[in-house]
Structures are given as C-alpha cells and as structure tokens.
Amino acid sequence: MSDDFPAYAPSEEQELLRATVRELADAKIAPFAAEVDEDARFPQEALDALVANDLHAVHVPEVYGGAGADALATVVVIEEVARACASSSLIPAVNKLGTVPVLLSGSEELKKKYLGPVARGEAMFSYALSEADAGSDAAGMKTRAVRDGDAWVLNGAKMWITNAGVSEYYTVMAVTDPSAGARGISAFVVEKSDPGVSFGPKERKLGIKGSPTRQVILEDVRIPADRIIGAEGTGFKTALATLDHTRITIAAQALGIAQGALDFALGYVKERRQFGKPISDFQGVQFMLADMAMRLEGARQLTYHAAVKSERAMHGEKIADLTFVSSACKALASDVAMDVTTDAVQLLGGYGYTREFPVERMMRDAKITQIYEGTNQIQRMVIARQLLK
155 vs 183, 190, 238, 381, CA distance in Å? Predict the structure, then answer.
C-alpha cells in the first residue's frame, strides 16, 4: 500500500510483537490467572514477566529510557495480556494512564525524574482523579492542594484507584482555586513514600480481582512545588486530554478479554458432542460464533484506528475527532466484550457457569470495562456532544 493511502492495520513489526506477547502471556501469565482471581492477589508473576521482557510500560519514549512503542503497539500489548488475564493487563494500561499527564503537560525535569524508573520496571504509576462524590462529575472533587512557600500541601481522599498501594507514583488531581470550578484544578505527582499518604482497604470486587482497587488518602501531604504537572489550574484540562488517549487502552483490554472468551468457546464447541455430533455443527451455535467474531473485529478496527490518531496527537498533530473516536472505541469494545463473554458462557452451558472454566471470570472481568475511565453512558454523552458541537 502506498504512503498516499496509509493503512491503520498493524505493521509486520507490530504483528511480531503480538506473537511475542501472546507466547509470553500463554506461558507466564495465563497459568496463574485463575489463582490470581480466586485469591484476589496481585499478579506478581505477570509483573515479573512483563518487566523481564520490557513490556510493562512500552509507551515510555526512548529518550526517558523506555521502549518508545507507539500507541498501536501499546494497544496490541494490552490486548494480548488481557486475553490471558485482565488483571495483569492493567499493569501496562495503568502505567500509561498514570504517566500520560506527565508526558502531555509535565516539565522536562518531571519527565526525567519519573518516567525513567517506570521504564526500568522499578516503579508503577497510577492515576487518581475520582472521589467518593466525584465520579462521572470529576470536576466536583474536594481534594485540596494549598501552596505553602516552596511546597504544596494536599488533603483529601481519592476513590477507585487502580493498583493503589502497589504503584510507587500517583498523578493526583486536586483543587487549587475553589472559586474557579474546573479551571481551579491542578495535577501533581505524589509518591507512595510521601509522609501522610495512606491507602484504604482493598475493594471486594466482581472482577479484575488481581488488580487492587483502593482509596488513596492524603493527610497534610507536603510535596515540592515542582511536582505540579503543568501550570496551576490546568489539571482538569490535562485529565480530559489524558483520557482521550487512555480510553483506547481500556478498549484494548476489552478486546483481549473478548478474544480470550471467543478462543476458548471455539475450542470447546469443537470438542463438546451432543446428539452424536460436535455442537459446532449446529447452525444456531455457528450463528452465535459468527456474531461474536464480527462484533469483535469491528470493535478492534475502530480501536486500532483510534490508536493511530492518538499516536499522531501525542506527536503534536491536531486531531479534531480524537475525543469522538476514543470514546466510541471504548464504548463499543466494552459493550462487545460484555456480549461476547456472556455468549461464551452460554456456549459452554452449565460448564460455563463454573469456575473450572475461564469464561465466567472473563465475563466478570469484562463488566468493568463498561464502567471505568468514564461509564459508557458518559461516553455516549461525549460522543453526542462531539457530533452536535
């Protein structure tokens, strides 16, 4: 295909990356997925394997010691890890979520200080936006940051923070000017070791049980003034810009979960026999499989399309429809993941409902992709506003 008519399909190099990640995930991550879910424990085996193969934060630019992978390659990595274990896929996904604000708006000094340890696998980076009373209405947050000389002092509690307690670093949004609404919100880097930082108990969840979700509690947390990300009052703008890029990684996670469920269901229906023949011979089953695959491939193509736009935007190009395509792929892929995993459970019948088979876990894991980084109801509002503006 000529350069005048560029494709957004993965390159040969990216498909080689997919094969590499799939082989690693099948060997080092999938064998522990059921245990990680059953025990609700962090997938340390996955972290070790991803770090050993430099796949834990592939998006970090080479100048900061990272692999410098583009947004589509990052999507491929997350997708393939999620196919084996959704909880484990949140390692590369949340490392991107936590660091994109720094990449977009942080000072050069901040980038050098925090991106290197993430790239080397010495630290993970989480994102702290939501609060108990500020979820979809994130601008209604109450966490405060008050300037005190050459420092900022933070007080508040952030809710639903993925990998909280495991990550060393946190992008924290806090109100610096209560009179300015959303324009009075600023972003900061907070370290786990900062005095006054603590964590609530782990949430007891339906799915992604291997990824801890906890409150991040800030009590008179004093941090150096240079840990602000961008100019004062630009934090909410940075938060929204970040989500334009990272909703695509949630779509990738949803794709992987759905692909894992479809792959397992395909293998099962070829082996399961009823009425003297494999159930894959029955047209009703074939139609279910066809619909699962069609919807999944449609969501994948939109997600890859959005990833290419994300990459162009990260390099400074003005992408007018980035918000639209990132919201659209996130909503579509997560809805598809819920449908596909539910159908996979149905195809396995009674076996699908038991923990002896992975599709019930995949169905539980898929649900969160419709909720976090903006519920799919919010995504539809965002999409409609983009259409109507």
Answer: 19, 12, 20, 31
